[in-house]
Amino acid sequence: MEKHELAVLTETANSALKELLGVANLKPGQIVVVGCSTSEVQGKRIGKASSMEIAEAISDAILPLIKENNLFLAVQGCEHINRSLVVEEECAEKYGLEIVNVLPHLHAGGGFATINYERFKNPVLVEGIQAHAGMDIGDTFIGMNMKRVVVPVRSEIKSIGEAHLTMARTRAKLVGGERAHYQK
Question: What is the value of pTM for the model shown?
């Protein structure tokens, strides 16, 4: 992929995440899960054309914003590592997550999980998580790693590269009945 095309990916991913963060209203220390198929970004079938350079371009957009907002990033790997997630060890400790023994690489976990594993300060992998918001780049199905209740975030940005983009935030469950009142 050409340098200018990679720059467009970075810019688009950055804009999408800014939009998500603006809507999700997250508190410091909360978790954003990102699933990213670099194959889908290129217009290829998921898992068939993984790319470290695309992973780097998208990580360049996402990781600094996550850090700037004092959030945790959870990067969902592919099915070859059972969708385990790369997180900072501090995140695993704070949320009581069980650490598993697997290392992501380009063809098991994917480029995005691999590059973030390399960039995190103290990376570990966990089997599951309940994130507060998320970005799904290329239909990687992050919903299994989000808190209930997931609320779609509608965006003007519909894709990153050729990959379909969906984003979501979460909210507390509404409980009670017809007499219940709820916080805004």
Answer: 0.94
